[in-house]
Design goal:
This protein is an all-alpha fold and about 425 residues long. Helices cover about 65% and strands about 0% of the residues. The protein is elongated.
C-alpha cells in the first residue's frame, strides 16, 4: 500500500504582539486586541466647579469605562457628549482620539489629538499619542517631531520611549525600537510595559526563546491580562513547550473570549499535548470569530482529519474551493477519507500544479493517482519528488512498492514530469 506523508504547515503562529494595557495607559489596539499600550493619561481631571463640569466629568468617566471594555463606539459617543458640555477640556479630546483610534477612524483620531495639543500644548500625552498614530500611518517625519516634543515636556518618563518603540515595531523598525526600550529600562528598570514590549520585539525578530523572559519579567512587574497571557503562550508554543503554552492560553481566553488568535493558538497547544477533541473545540471557536481566516481553516481541517472526522473536514475544506495549495491538498485527503477518490484526485492535481516542488503534496498526489489506477503517472510523480529531494524515503518506498525505478541523479535527467 502506498505511503502518505503527513500534511503539516507552519500553522498560523502569526500573532499580534504587544503589551497589556493598564489603568494609566489607555491606548487600545487599532485593529486587534493583542496590541500595544499607549500613553499615560494627562493626570487627574480638575475638580468640577459647577453642575455642567460635574456632568461632563461623569460622562468622561463613563466613556473611559466603555473604552476599557473595548466598546469604542460607545466611548466615542460618550466622549463627544462630554465635549458638548466642556469643549475646551484637552484631556477629553485626548481620550476621544484614543477611542477613535480603537474604532478605526484614524482621521478623527488625529484631529482629536491635534485639538488636545492646541488646547494644552505643554502636555506630553497628546503629543505622544499623535506621534504613535502618525508613525503607524507612515508619517514618520512629523511623528518623530511630536515624539521629541513629548520627551522635552516629560524627559524622565519612560512611557514615551516604550510607546514610541511600540509604534516603530508596528512598522517593522526593530533596531530603533530596541534603543528606545533600552532607554526606558535605564530610566526605570521596573517598567513592566517596556519589558512586555521588549518581548514583542524579540518575538517579531523570530526569537521566542528570548521573548519569554521579558514577558515573564513584565508579569512579575504587574503587567496582567489577556494580552500578556496570549503573547507568552504563543512564545512558549513556538519553542515547543505546549503544556505551558496551553495553561497561558487558557488564561488568555478566560480573560478575553473575543480573540480568534488566542483561541487558535490554544487549539494548536492542545494539539501539541495530544488533546485533539479539545483542540477542535478551540479551533471552532476561533473559526466562528474569524470565518475567513485561511490559516484557521487549515488548522481546524488538520485536527478533524486526525480524528478521522472526514465528513466535517470535507464540509469545511471543499467549498469555497481553496486557492492555497496546502488547503487543496488537505481537502484531497479529506475527500479520500470520505470515499470520494475521484474528487480527491482533482484537488490533489490542482495542489501539485500550484506547488510543484512541495514533496509532501506531490507524494500524496502520487498515492491518489495509484489508487485511482494511473500507476504510470504516480511513478512519474514520485520520481519528481526524488528529483526535488533525493533522500525522500516515502517516495522511494512508494516507487519500490510499485516496481518503479528511482532516478540516479538530477544531472542524469532521471524521472519524468507529472502528466497533465
Amino acid at each position: 500500500m502506498p505511503f502518505f506523508d503527513l500534511l503539516t504547515r507552519q500553522q498560523n503562529t502569526r500573532g499580534s504582539w504587544g503589551c497589556q494595557r493598564t489603568r494609566v495607559a489607555r491606548r487600545l489596539p487599532a485593529l486587534v486586541l493583542l496590541a500595544a499600550v499607549g500613553a499615560a493619561s494627562c493626570g487627574p481631571p480638575p475638580e468640577p466647579r459647577d453642575p455642567t463640569a460635574t456632568a461632563a466629568a461623569e460622562l468622561r468617566g463613563q466613556a473611559r469605562e466603555a473604552l476599557d471594555r473595548g466598546d469604542a463606539r460607545l466611548a466615542v459617543a460618550t466622549f463627544r457628549r462630554a465635549l458638548q458640555l466642556a469643549p475646551s477640556d484637552a484631556d477629553t479630546w485626548n481620550d476621544l482620539g484614543l477611542a477613535y483610534e480603537v474604532a478605526g477612524d484614524l482621521d478623527s483620531a488625529q484631529a482629536s489629538f491635534e485639538s488636545a495639543i492646541r488646547l494644552a500644548p505643554r502636555r506630553a500625552p497628546a503629543h505622544l499619542n499623535l506621534a504613535v498614530l502618525l508613525m503607524r500611518r507612515g508619517v514618520s517625519g512629523r511623528a518623530r517631531t511630536e515624539f521629541a516634543q513629548a520627551l522635552e515636556l516629560d524627559p524622565g518618563n519612560p512611557s514615551p520611549y516604550w510607546n514610541f518603540a511600540t509604534a516603530l515595531l508596528d512598522v517593522g523598525k526593530t533596531e530603533p525600537a530596541r534603543e528606545l526600550l533600552d532607554t526606558a529600562l535605564q530610566l526605570d528598570p521596573a517598567c513592566g510595559p517596556a519589558e512586555a514590549t521588549y518581548g514583542r520585539l524579540e518575538a517579531l525578530n523570530g526569537q521566542p526563546a528570548l521573548a519569554i523572559p521579558h514577558f515573564e519579567r513584565a508579569e512579575s512587574l504587574g503587567v496582567q491580562g489577556a494580552t500578556l497571557q496570549a503573547n507568552l503562550g504563543l512564545a512558549l508554543l513556538e519553542v515547543g513547550r505546549a503544556a505551558e503554552a496551553e495553561v497561558r492560553l487558557d488564561r488568555a481566553v478566560a480573560l478575553d473570549s473575543t480573540s480568534a488568535s488566542a483561541w487558535n493558538h490554544l487549539g494548536l497547544a492542545r494539539l501539541g499535548t495530544g488533546k485533539v477533541a479539545e483542540a477542535i473545540e478551540a479551533l471552532e471557536r476561533a473559526r466562528r470569530l474569524a470565518p475567513r481566516d485561511e490559516d484557521l481553516r487549515f488548522n481546524l481541517g488538520s485536527a478533524l482529519l486526525r480524528l478521522e472526522r472526514y465528513a466535517e473536514a470535507v464540509a469545511l475544506l471543499e467549498r469555497p474551493r481553496p486557492e492555497r495549495a496546502d488547503l487543496l491538498a488537505l481537502a484531497a485527503m479529506a475527500l479520500r477519507g470520505a470515499g470520494r477518490r475521484g474528487d480527491a484526485l482533482l484537488f490533489a492535481k490542482d495542489a501539485a500544479a500550484r506547488a510543484p516542488r512541495d514533496v509532501v503534496i506531490l507524494n500524496n498526489y502520487g498515492v491518489l493517482l495509484a489508487e485511482t489506477g494511473d500507476v504510470e503517472s504516480a511513478l512519474d510523480v514520485w520520481r519528481q519528488v526524488l528529483e526535488v529531494d533525493p533522500g525522500n524515503t516515502t517516495a522511494r518506498d512508494n516507487l519500490k512498492a510499485r516496481g518503479g525505478v528511482a532516478p540516479q541523479s538530477e544531472e542524469a535527467g532521471g524521472g519524468s514530469k507529472p502528466r497533465p
